[in-house]
Design goal:
This protein is α/β, with parallel strands linked by helices. Helices cover 31% and strands 22% of the residues. Among the domains are: 154 residues, Alpha-Beta Barrel (TIM Barrel), CATH 3.20.20.80; 204 residues, Rossmann fold (3-Layer(aba) Sandwich), CATH 3.40.50; 57 residues, Immunoglobulin-like (Sandwich). Strand 5, helix 9 and strand 6 form a beta-alpha-beta unit. The longest helix has 29 residues.
């Protein structure tokens, strides 16, 4: 198990470094990330490299048993580079070209920026190829915003050539007869710059796909250099969890050895542990493998404003939650709060003065525990009986046409996830093309973009005995973002046994009641935003609308298809209804939590070939009493636990159990 912090020795006098290394060792650290924002330090003038200061820092930490993950510094270009080549700056959708003064402000398509990126990465790879203290590379940092410059326009046109082959095929796929937007030369095709009206939805979706592919290509440029010149070291990138909507993270993860993400639970608000769990599971799902947290919050965040300080116990709790969901590495941001620059109020483990206090003690206490038990947990895997389909094509399409000011792809996805999370049902987050045969339950919220291949796979999954849940705004568009020529939910209509007779986009705050059928236990719930008026074609009604002109009409249905079943939720419901529906469904399917626990206690399981680890996490502010049966050895305390146990607020219990219990 890797445990450490993001360290910036270039920010501090070198005489302080030994004290930092000593405190890190005492905190149980075995890894740091360094240099991801140090390009100018490493290349102070074009073609002149200085690695000596970083060599000394790496060696000093290595003497204390602390290994290094080096970041390629391409997220923060030098002033000398951007002054010489201002065309490398990213252009926003309104046509404004960014200027110097921030980070991540470059065009990923720019051949000049790629050339200079390749040079610094090559120099670093050659210099550190044989350094035994450098164990891995982080590519860049938190890719990245979309660019609308002329270079990107040309790149987009070339990308379209490769995808469609001919203008005739593109015009047919996009339906460019509308408004006489027929293209007779590739150079005529624009980017979706900001206008007073929406762009062709097909163009807008393909542009978003292109920009995502561009970042994948830019990352691959660096990955290929490192694989060639620095073999034997793993390659990682720090993603931004489920919430970041501008890149296809499944594609970005393909070239990496390990996925990481940056976890800030108290960033601009109170911690939402369900959202944190969703991001952990999303990161694990990108490669179907364990992940790291490369930036774990360790103090109040902020630059212009300072946000709330982590409460006592929260810092280790957040780290344990990540480990419970499959993290094999926890790296805190940052070691010491910087005294200058744009993030001088983005606090680390140590405050500005470098004095260890409460936050350091919490980190060190957890470090001592991980030194005892980390090797036992590391490499064990989360086994989930259910999955959710994350469609970046659908997500991109809704960014251009949300269709209702209160609708977003993320809303139904998060609500469905949260409902199962509250029932402590383990979930994998998978792409639409994933093999679903091993899952008892699959949820595909708002599967707006649906191609024939994915539809056929879902049909086969249900016919073979699987249970599918999907929602309104599914099966609406083909792969080109063109409305299907059939009754909705399009290619899913037969599997779901239902047709959408019409739909109603409801105004902001304009709710409508839905009434659950006796099968679900009855009761009235609230729906909002969107209402599909459903006509069952063999399906059973699980809930109907209670008001408006479609009062009494079906809102939620269940259809037996082959050996399986499909549920269609035709509206955006409140969380209590989803919890009722999915709880009933799990009971019917025999899906149960690993352990029955009080509300607010999260339960996950990690398994290896010879061990099973049951994680119990009390995310509440009150003590919880839990019956653990035969229990097992609690790895945190080292004591046996059985029968009824008490879990303190923000307390964690990790029971090592024999297989089969």
């Amino acid at each position: 198990m890797y445990y450490g912090a993001d360290y910036y020795p270039e920010h501090w006098p070198e005489e302080r470094w030994p004290e930092d290394a000593r405190l890190m060792k005492e905190a149980g650290f075995n890894v740091v990330r360094m240099a991801e924002f140090a390009w100018t330090r490493l290349e102070p003038r074009e073609g002149t490299f200085d690695f000596e200061w970083l060599d000394r820092a790496i060696a000093l930490l290595g003497e204390q048993g602390i290994q290094t993950v080096l970041g390629t510094p391409t997220a923060a270009p030098p002033a000398w580079l951007m002054r010489a080549y201002p065309e490398c700056f990213l252009v926003e959708e309104h046509g404004l070209r960014l200027t110097y003064g921030h980070r991540r402000n470059t065009c990923p398509t720019s051949p000049i920026y790629r050339q200079y990126s390749a040079r610094i990465v090559t120099a670093m790879a050659q210099h550190y190829a044989d350094n035994p203290h450098v164990i891995g590379w982080q590519i860049d940092n938190e890719f990245g915003d979309r660019c609308y410059c002329q270079t990107c326009q040309h790149g987009f046109q070339e990308w379209l050539k490769g995808k469609y082959g001919s203008l005739e095929a593109l015009n047919a796929a996009w339906g460019t007869d509308f408004w006489s937007h027929i293209y007779t030369a590739w150079q005529q095709i624009p980017l979706p710059w900001a206008t007073s009206y929406t762009h062709n939805p097909s163009l807008a979706l393909d542009y978003r796909r292109f920009m995502s592919d561009t970042y994948v290509e830019y990352q691959r440029l660096q990955v290929d250099i490192l694989r060639c010149l620095s073999p034997g070291k793993f390659i990682i990138h720090n993603f931004m969890g489920f919430g970041y909507p501008k890149l296809n993270y499944f594609h970005l993860a393909e070239d990496l050895d390990v996925v990481a993400w940056d976890n800030y639970p108290r960033y601009r608000g109170q911690p939402d542990l369900g959202e944190r769990a969703l991001s952990h599971d999303t990161m694990r799902g990108l490669k179907g493998a364990n992940f790291w947290v490369m930036e774990e919050q360790s103090g109040p965040t902020g630059n212009v404003e300072v946000h709330s300080t982590p409460r006592p116990g929260e810092i280790p709790y957040w780290a344990w939650q990540a480990i419970a969901h499959g993290a094999d590495g926890i790296v805190y941001f940052r070691w010491r709060t910087c005294r200058f620059g744009a993030e001088e109020y983005w606090h680390g483990i140590l405050d500005h003065d470098g004095v260890p206090r409460r936050r350091y003690r919490e980190v060190a206490q957890m470090g001592a525990t991980l030194q005892r038990i980390g090797a036992e947990i590391e490499g064990s895997q989360v086994q989930a009986p259910a999955a959710m389909l994350l469609s970046y094509d659908s997500r991109f399409a809704f960014q251009n046409q949300p269709q209702n000011p209160d609708f977003s792809y993320e809303a139904p996805f998060t609500s469905c996830y949260r409902a199962l999370w509250k029932h402590n049902i383990g979930l994998d987050i998978v792409p639409p093309e994933a093999d679903l045969s091993g899952y008892q339950l699959v949820i595909a919220p708002a599967l707006y973009i649906l191609d024939e291949g994915t539809a056929a796979q879902l049909r086969e999954y249900v016919a073979s005995g699987g249970t599918l849940v999907t929602t309104c705004r599914s099966g609406v568009m083909d792969e080109h973002n063109v409305v299907v020529n059939r009754a909705l939910p399009g290619l899913l209509a037969e599997v779901c046994g239902v047709e959408v007779e019409e739909y109603d986009s409801r105004g902001r705050g304009d709710t409508v009641p839905i009434v659950a059928a006796a099968l679900l236990g009855g009761g009235s719930f609230t729906a909002r935003t969107w209402a599909d008026v459903l006509e069952p074609r063999g399906a059973t009604v699980l809930a109907h609308y209670g008001a408006d002109y479609y009062a009494g009409r079906a809102a939620v249905t269940l259809h037996r298809f082959g050996q399986g079943q499909a549920i269609y939720v035709g509206t955006i419901t409140d969380d209590p209804f989803l919890e009722r529906l999915l709880g009933w469904l799990c009971e019917e399917r025999g899906l149960a939590a690993p352990l029955t626990v009080p509300q607010g206690v999260e339960v996950t399981v990690r398994e290896s070939d010879d061990a099973r680890f049951l994680f119990l996490l009390n995310g509440t502010a009150e003590r919880r009493r839990i019956h653990v049966g035969d229990g097992g050895r609690d790895l945190v305390s080292g004591e046996m636990a059985s029968g009824e146990v008490t879990l303190d607020p923000l307390g964690v219990l990790i029971l090592e159990q024999e297989e089969g219990k």
